[in-house]
TrEMBL record, chains A, B:
Residues 354-409 form the External alternative NADH-ubiquinone oxidoreductase-like C-terminal domain. It comes from Pedobacter yulinensis. This is NADH:ubiquinone reductase (non-electrogenic). The lineage of its organism: Bacteria, Pseudomonadati, Bacteroidota, Sphingobacteriia, Sphingobacteriales. Keywords: FAD, Flavoprotein, Membrane, NAD, Oxidoreductase, Transit peptide, Transmembrane, Transmembrane helix. It comes from the Bacteria.
Length: 436, 436
C-alpha cells in the first residue's frame, strides 16, 4: 500500500537517513524545485562524535541529539516520517517501509554505518556497541551497575570482571573512550566509591595494528599512546581478540582478561538496505559510487557519507567515514540534483580533507592539519571548538559548553545516572505503525 | 545472608530512600556519631517537581537527576547501596533486600509516595503515571509517537485518539502538565507538524472536586482555571473518571473521550514496604508518626516525608506531601537522633508552611504565601526562582536555567526526542545483585 504524502508538482528526492550527509543535502534543497522526503528510524539527528561522552557520564544524551523536524522548520518542500526502510526496489523507483511503500524520482542513501563485528557472532552477542544514543546510554548503565555490583561481590574472579574495562579498536572512538574511562576512574571513582580499591580498576585498549589512530600522523599516534599510558591505560597494540564469552576476553597471544565490559569500536560497515544489485556493493557493505555520487548501475540512486564508497586512484578504499566527507557530499549532491533538473552540466565531487583530530583527556588531544601538527592543551581546545561548532542546535551547544566548563573546573562527570537498566541490546523505538 | 558493610563503632541509621527527606537527614548526620547507610533503587535523587517538564520535552532528564553518591562526597560516615528493600522486620531490627539482609539501630523510612489508582485496575493498566524519570521519559515518547502516528493514520476514530491528551487530577502536577501540553501544541506543533490540523489536538484536564488546586486559595484556584481556559485547555471540574480501556475514557456524566494518552495525576499513596503492624498504617498507605517522627508502635523506627502521616489536631490528614515538609522533617529528625544518643531531650516537630505555588505557562503562575497572594508574571518568576534554588546540584541549576531562558525566548521545547520507544510500564533498573 502506498503511503499518503503531501502532493507536490516537483520531482521527489527521497533521503534515507538524517545524519550529517542527509541533513546537509535536504537543507541545500530548500526553495529548490523538489519535494524532499526524509525517512529516519529516529525523530532526531545524533551527533555521533560525542557518544563516548554520554557513555562515560560526561554529557546528557539530549544535548547531542537534535529533533529532525526542528532542523527543517519552515522548509515548505520538506516532509519527514519516522520509519525503518525494509527494502529498496530500484527497478520500480520505490522503497518498502514499515508504514507503506514510497515512490521516488531520486533516491539518496544516507544511512551511515553500523558496528562491524567481522562475522564474530560470539563477540557480537557479548560486546557493547556505541553507535546510537540508546547504545551509549546502555553502556553508561552497564559501567555504573558494574561498579555498584563490585561493592557487594565476594567472589574474587567475578569481582575482577566487574572492574576490568576493555575497549577494542584504537581508532579515534576507541582512544577517546579509553581516555574518558581513565578520567572517570581517577577523578570520579575515588570520591564516589571510597570503599573501592582503585588499583583493581583497569582500563585496556586493544588494537590489532602496530599503532593507534591509524589514519593520523606518526607524531599524533605516538603522542596519543603516550597520553594514554600516562593516564594509566594498558595499551596493547598488535593484539588481536580471539573470543569473548561475556566474562573472559581471549587474545591471540594467549593472554586473557576477565571482564564483563567490552566496548567494541574495532570497525564499522555500511548500514545497507536490501535490494541493490551485487555489483554495486563493495567491501564493508558499502555502495560503490562514481564522482557524482551515483550508485554503480543506477542513474537516479545516490549514496553519500559512510554508506558510499567513492573509490578513485587517490582513494582506493574510498573516503574516510567522517562527518566532513558526508557533509561535503550532501552539499555537492544537492547542487548536482539541481543542475540535473535545470539541464546544466554535473560537477564531479572533490573531497577537501580538513585533517583529523582525537582527544585523549583534559588538556590532551592530537591534531593533524596536513602539514601543521600539534598535540596537547592547544589541540584539546581546538578539538572542543570544532566539535561545539559542528554540533547541531544552539541550545545543545550551550548545554555541552556548560558541561565541559563544569567538568573542567570540577574534574566531575555529572550525569553518572542509571536511568534504565542495562540490557545487552537496548530496545530501539519501533517504527511508526498504523494501529488499524 | 547478611550484607557486608564497612565496620563502624557507631550506631547504624538505615535510611530507605534518597528523596528530599532522606538526603537532608543524611547530610545533617555528617560528623555525628552514627553510621548512615542509605538504600535507594536508583543511584540518583529525582527532583520530582519538574518531571512534567521532562515529559513535555522542556528539560533533559539528566538535569533533574543528581547522583546520590556525589551528594555525600567526602562524608565519611555515609554508605550507599543501590537496592530494593523487600521487607522490614522491626522485631529483629533488620531489613531484607535484594542484595542481602541489613541490620540497623535506627530505621528511617523516607520512601516517598507512588501513584494511587484507588484500586481501579483497568485504569492502572492503561493510564500513564509520572512519578519517576523512566516514567516521564516514557510519557515523552508516547506523546511524540502519537503525533508521528497521526500523520499516517487514515481511520478517523484512531486519529482522534492519537490527538486527544487527557490529564486526570487538578492538583499542581495536573495543572502544570496540562499547561505544558498546551504550550507544546501552540508553540512547537505548528512548526514541527505543518501537515497537522491543530484544531484536532485537544487537551483535557479532569478534576473530581469543584475547583483545581484544592490546597490553594480561591483566588489562585480561579486564576489557574482562567489561565488554562485562555490557553485552550478544556477544564472539566466535578467530573469523575469511570473507566479507561486504552482508547476511550468514560466519565460519570456520560461523556466519553477517545484518547490513547491519559496522564494519571489524580492521587498518590505512601510507598510502603511490607512488615509493619497494621495499627501503624493509616489512610493512603502511610505510616502514622508522632511529633518526633517515630512510627506508631516502634521506638527506633521513624518515617519522614510523603510516607509519614503526622496527624495532629491542626492537621487531621497529616502534612501536605511537598518537598519542604520532607526536608524539615529530615533536618529535625537528624537533630533528635543526635539528642537521643547524647541523652538530651527530644524536641517535637513543628511544620513551617512556606505556602504553595503552581505554574500554568509562560508568565502564568499562582502563588499563595499565607496572606500574600499573587498571580501572573511575577508569580511565574518566583516559581522558577524557588525551583532553581531547590534543585540539587550546581550543574543541574545551570542546565535548567539555560533551558528555561532558551525556551522563553524561542518558544521552543528542545528535547522532543523519542530516545526509547514507549512501553506501558518502563523497565526500572534492577536492583544490584551478585552474579554468583
Amino acid at each position: 500500500m502506498n503511503l499518503e504524502l503531501p502532493k507536490s508538482e516537483h520531482p521527489r528526492v527521497l533521503v534515507i537517513g538524517g545524519g550529517f550527509g542527509g541533513i546537509e543535502l535536504a537543507k541545500k534543497l530548500r526553495n529548490k524545485p523538489f519535494q524532499v522526503v526524509m525517512l529516519d528510524r529516529h525523530n532526531y539527528h545524533t551527533f555521533q562524535p560525542l557518544l563516548y561522552q554520554v557513555s562515560t557520564g560526561g554529557l546528557e544524551p539530549d544535548s547531542i541529539a537534535f529533533p529532525l523536524r526542528k532542523i527543517f522548520k519552515g522548509q515548505e518542500n520538506f516532509v519527514f516520517r519516522v520509519t525503518e526502510v525494509q527494502e529498496i526496489i530500484p527497478e520500480a523507483n520505490k522503497v518498502i517501509t514499515d508504514i507503506g511503500e514510497i515512490s521516488y524520482d531520486y533516491l539518496v542513501m544516507a544511512t551511515g554505518s553500523t558496528t562491524n563485528y567481522f562475522g564474530q557472532k560470539e563477540i557480537e552477542a557479548n560486546a557493547m556497541p556505541m553507535k546510537t544514543i540508546p547504545e551509549a546510554l546502555n553502556l553508561r548503565s552497564l559501567i555504573l551497575q558494574n561498579l555498584e555490583k563490585s561493592l557487594i561481590e565476594n567472589n574474587k574472579v567475578v569481582y575482577d570482571t566487574l572492574l576490568n574495562f576493555v575497549v577494542v579498536g584504537g581508532g579515534p572512538t576507541g582512544v577517546e573512550t579509553a581516555g574518558a574511562l581513565s578520567e572517570l576512574k581517577r577523578h570520579v571513582l575515588k570520591n564516589d566509591y571510597p570503599e573501592l580499591d582503585l588499583n583493581k580498576v583497569n582500563i585496556y585498549l586493544i588494537e590489532g595494528s602496530p599503532e593507534l589512530l591509524g589514519a593520523m600522523s606518526p607524531q599524533a599516534q605516538k603522542k596519543a599512546k603516550d597520553f594514554l599510558v600516562e593516564m594509566g591505560v594498558t595499551v596493547l597494540t598488535e593484539s588481536r581478540v580471539l573470543s569473548y564469552d561475556g566474562s573472559t576476553l581471549k587474545l591471540a597471544d594467549g593472554q586473557s582478561i576477565p571482564t564483563s565490559t567490552v566496548i567494541w569500536s574495532a570497525g564499522v560497515m555500511g548500514e545497507l538496505i536490501p535490494g541493490f544489485a551485487a555489483a554495486s556493493i563493495v567491501r564493508g557493505n558499502r555502495l560503490k559510487v562514481n564522482a557524482y555520487n551515483a550508485v554503480e548501475g543506477y542513474t537516479n540512486v545516490f549514496a553519500i557519507g559512510d554508506i558510499a564508497a567513492m573509490i578513485t586512484e587517490e582513494t582506493p578504499l574510498g573516503l574516510p567515514g567522517v562527518a566532513p566527507a558526508a557533509i561535503q557530499q550532501g552539499k555537492h549532491l544537492a547542487k548536482n540534483l539541481y543542475n540535473r533538473v535545470s539541464n546544466r552540466a554535473l560537477e564531479p565531487f572533490k573531497y577537501f580533507d580538513k585533517g583529523s583530530m582525537a582527544t585523549v583527556g583534559r588538556n590532551k588531544a592530537v591534531v593533524d592539519l596536513h602539514k601543521i601538527r600539534f598535540q596537547g592543551v592547544f589541540a584539546w581546545f581546538a578539538w572542543m571548538f570544532v566539535h561545539l561548532m559542528t554540533l547541531v542546535g544552539f541550545r545543545n551547544k550551550v548545554v555541552v559548553f556548560v558541561n565541559w566548563v563544569w567538568n573542567y573546573f570540577s574534574y566531575d562527570r555529572g550525569t553518572r545516572l542509571i536511568i534504565r537498566e542495562y540490557e545487552k541490546r537496548p530496545k530501539e523505538p519501533e517504527p511508526t505503525q498504523t494501529i488499524l
